[in-house]
Amino acid sequence: MESTSSALPLGAGCEVLRVRLRELRDRAGQVRKQAGSSSSLDTLETAVRRSGLPGTTTFRGQRVSSWAPPLDRPEKFVVPQDGDVLLAVVAVWSAWSGRPALDGQGRVDQRWLKAARPEWDRLLGDAQKERAVSRERGDEQARARAAITVYLGRVREVHRRLNLDVLGPSGLAGEQPVIELRQVFMPQACRPFVPHLEEGVRRRLVAVGELVDDEELSRSARELGREEAARQAVAQPVLSVLAQETGRRLVVLGDPGAGKSTLAKYLTLALAGGLSDMPSSLEPLAGLVPVLVELRQYAQPHWREHTIEEFLDHLHVQERMGLPRPVLDGLLESGRAVVVFDGLDEIFDPAVRAQTTRRITAFSAHYRQVRTVVTSREYGYRSHEFATNNFDQVMLQNLDPGQVETFIRRWYAAAHPEKPQLAGQLTERLLSAVRTVRPVAELAGNPLLLTILAAIGMGRTIPRERREVYAHAIDVLVERWDKDAKFLTPPAPPTSDVAHALEGLTAGRRLKLLERIARAMQEGAGKPAGTFIHHDDLTGIIRTFLTESNIAPPAADVAAGIMVEHLRSRNFLLAHYGGGLYGFVHRTFLEYLAATDLLRRREEEEWTRDHLIDLLTRQAHDPDWHEVLLLMAGGLRQRDVAALLTRLLQLHRQGASRFFEAPMLVLAIKVLAETADIGAPFVPGTSDPRLSVAAQSDAVIDALTMTLQELFLLRLPDALPALGTFGHFWSGRDRYMRWYQAQGVIRYDIFGTASALAAALSRNAREAIVLFHASRLGGNSEAQGGAILAVLGERWSDRSEVFDTVLHATTDDNPGFRRIALAALGKWWSDRPEVFDTVLHATTDDDPDTRRVALAALGEWWSDCPEVFDTVLHATTADEDADVRHTALAALGERWHDRSEVFDTVLHATTTDDNPDTRRVALVALGKWWDDRPEVFDAVLHATTADEDAGVRRIALAALGERWSDRSEVFDTVLH
Question: N or C, which terminus of the chain has less Cβ within 10 Å?
């Protein structure tokens, strides 16, 4: 009935059949177990014998163990010989899994059999032929293929899932959702790597009289010019770079948490067949075998005298995560491998790191045909060795807003596949925070921090509970990531006293130390050095902190230096910027830790209420302190919050408001939004209103409505996100809406501010839609309707009734409503085909301003569509309205300046268009996009004297001075 040559290696056909049988058996067993039914051999034998297929009446189930052996024992696989018996077993397992494979009498359903037989006959036939060939030839190639197949299966098994136990809440370890890497991975862009300081950091170094590293100072002008060119290079998708010929030897650098290791695992998983489809950008690498070397393991002392090949052989023998040495050598010699060395920065010892670098470059030089990829942080990276050995070097970029949104949608869809409504709610909640809360948006660009936000966001409301999110992120980065995810151990301290000093820095005490450091740095906000701290001051804070715990000064000095070095080398929180200056990698962490320190001082009664409120009031005028104040507001006592609101409203009434804005009023609204419990409506005479949050809640709304009546030009965009976070039963909502409807404010709402606030306070999309329809009756309906539409799109773009409302508004009799609807469609729903058709059609609208909005939207959201380019190009000459031609010319230059016909069109417009404003727009575009062309200089120079319009001549003269000031004829022309 079956083959007995189980010792023969598995080829691809046998492996596919074995895996399919094993998966089917496991799925059937799980379903039966959940249903409380037996899936024993006796049960299987009985079911197969009743199947009605030939040869099954004497079936014994024991043979199935050799058809579907354990995943770690593929060599035990025996190829079935009787196709009918195999189909009977498959039918039973399929029926147990819930598929209609058996009829009511337990016989094989003929419709199922007709559909299933061809596939299983093919799988069985392939396996039988392959086993026969393997038995006859016994060739090494078959053995190698089998070994590679087993290895790739192990790679898929190990790397497919994300480790969320490290990133999620510690109390939910083991209970996190199963999310696979392929479901959420977002490939970033990358740029050529150049070691440099950000301009903001450079200015701060200069401001405090510090110098950057000698290496930075000694670069020649030629080198700096090369670096500037690299910085200006267009970012490329990192997967495409990996597959290019220039990526044959590649170093991928990135900031902490930038996703370097995740990229390495994704590349490995993709080449191992662990994705549903191979990304098109990686197709040039199809067929190559991935080999992942985690350098933190290879750098262990007992491997320092061994070769990389010996280390990989060890992985095969001990962990089944490698290939037999002959197979590995064959792949390396033939160049059919991609070797990824991950985590060069995770080698702490600089000497060992340098030695490992030399071994990698020597490995790459020996196996010249093998693609070699190295990942590292920028800290501690020395480019010379790699550059000398012809390695290209790129730097991963942060995720852009579109990638962040895609990741969040994928994350929650994968976390809750059976609950799409819940996934949608969690998605919109986090997206709203990313779009409207600056600190959250800053974190979201970093893949690791975005993953933490998504993981903790399943149980927390962001931004209202963002303090807990930040606390969790800091706990992961400081205490758990290196230890639990990376398994890194820093070098041992030099003495036992120093070791005891460092051991005393428990999680809680380390957090207090970071809080003290953050507060010292935050107190520098607004000063020349900004929120940075010098090495000596940093070690001084740590030394003082340790001596307060009775650590002897000598041991405290050494421990402080070790602590700073650890922060520098594993800089998830603090980074070294050169010149002895340190700063937090993300300002959000600085703000949170500083706020926590100030709260601790109040909780421990170090400060009185008046002292604290005086301090916060002084800082209220500094925007760099606003997030600290808001993070504190969520943790302050009720009376403290009320006192702070009282003082902010006093500042507002004392004339802090300006013509277009009211900063203290906005800050008061944000502080109120951070308060967890506003309480029942205030009853006058029951307590001091200055210490009642409920009373101050009413006072905030009264100040808001009064300010709107007095300042018709007021704009309060920063208040909108905060107003949208209040609970459904907040009394301030009804207080504001009564005023909004009773005062007839719609007639005076010039910028739509009052209407936007009303929309932000709406409990749901339908309430805001009612406001939108009502705005048609106002004296400034376009401004009011546009303001309401902006809130609708920001908060409820996923609701069908919102989309339908906006789409319908594009046909409104009022051209103003058509314009605001078209702009909103492009911003929030550009991925819908009907939206593109609507906007494209609007380029023929009778209203020229509507045509302008449509053209601008097309250029912004659909510039890669050929039909859009043709439409915009046509409008530059065919539209009878000069303003429409201006818009089309500007869009051409902005979106398609690399096309020759665009240059010709813009150049032609400088002399042929009869509208002087159009000629001015054309001249500006020429100077902006094509100032290196001789004919552009000639055109601008000619316009300074030949154009009949004085405004055009002024524009031309200004362009000459700005872009060609070094040319003698420019000086003569301007002087003349």
Answer: C
